[in-house]
Amino acid sequence: MDANVSYGFKDNISNAVSSRDIFEDQFIAANLNIGKLWVPYTGKSVVPGGHLGTENFNDTYGLDRYSYGALLTYIQRLGLGAYTPRLGIGFSADKRDFQTNSRDGWLYRTNIGLEKRFLPQLHAKLELTAERRAADASKAVPYSDLAPGDVFNQSNNELAASMDYTLENNSVISVRYFYRDGEVDASTNPGSEFFGFSKAIAKDFQLCDSCGQYAVYLIDASSHSFMLDWNWALGKDTSISANYERRVANANGGITYTGNSFIVQLDRRL
To answer: Rounded distance, CA 162 to CA 122, Å?
Structure first.
């Protein structure tokens, strides 16, 4: 069992392009993760688990959420020894309850990953994930009669590659890359660049004090994310980390938007 608390900052909450639509905010998140390792045979492991979480923004309205869910992971060692690769297959289902009902729903993720330790200090992982977000379309309010309002039912695929290196002081530096392709929601003032390329449009009401009556668009997009993480051990069961992420997304119609986030997180094994 482990728990974490984090404080973060995002500079493009709404996935917008125009400066009039972009706004930033700080948030606090907390998570409790429960898992039990079961080893039926040598080299084979099964980990069932559960999750409770919450995320609360400082100024943004509608994105605060609570979540709970379950996961199941199977791990197969591909040989013997400390440097043997490990193959992992996992499935998770997470129920998310937002401050605005139109975003409520389930998040399903299925992944397969291969990881290997090359040196005592060096570890790498490659992972593929299929993601499905399911929301109740009847809770979304269409922006007009000319387009459907089902903006929060989404499908995505993701490729992730990471490398971790342990320094002499036992801190760990991680470099990660994510490529994500599929559907995303973007909230802006009405009549944004996304209008001509959106698959659905709904009302998003007031996301922030200066937002007005935003519209949320469902669009196809691919994104590249680069992440740098530095983790320090504070004791046997406690650590703190600082994380920076840069994301560049390309949507239909040659539209590009960017986002940066910074997170400080405290982890504790219970």
So the answer is: 11
Neighbours of 121 (CB within 10 A): 12
H or E stretch at 10: strand 2-10
Helix (H, G, I), strand (E, B) or coil at 120: coil
Q: Does residue 144 sit in helix, strand or coil?
A: coil
Can you tell me whether residue 181 is helix, strand or coil?
A: strand
Angle (nearest 5°) at CA 129 between 28 and 140: 60
Q: Give the pLDDT confidence score for residue 32 in this predicted structure.
A: 98
Domain region containing 129? 2-269
pLDDT digits (tens, 9 = 90+) for 155-179: 999 999 999 999 988 899 999 999 9
Segment 245-265, tens digit of pLDDT: 999 999 988 999 999 999 999
- The parts of the chain modelled with pLDDT lower than 70 are 206, 210, 212
Q: Is 139 helix (H, G, I), strand (E, B) or coil?
A: helix
Residues 87, 43 contacting (CB under 8 angstroms) = no
d(CA 224, CA 197): 20
101 closest CA partner among 133, 140, 69: 140
CA dist 116 and 70 (Å) reads 26
Helix (H/G/I), strand (E/B), else coil: 29: strand
Rounded CA-CA distance 104/68 in Å is: 12
Contact indicator for 217, 241 with CB cutoff of 8 Å: no
CATH (domain of 107): 2.40.160.40
User: What pLDDT sits at residue 206?
Assistant: 67
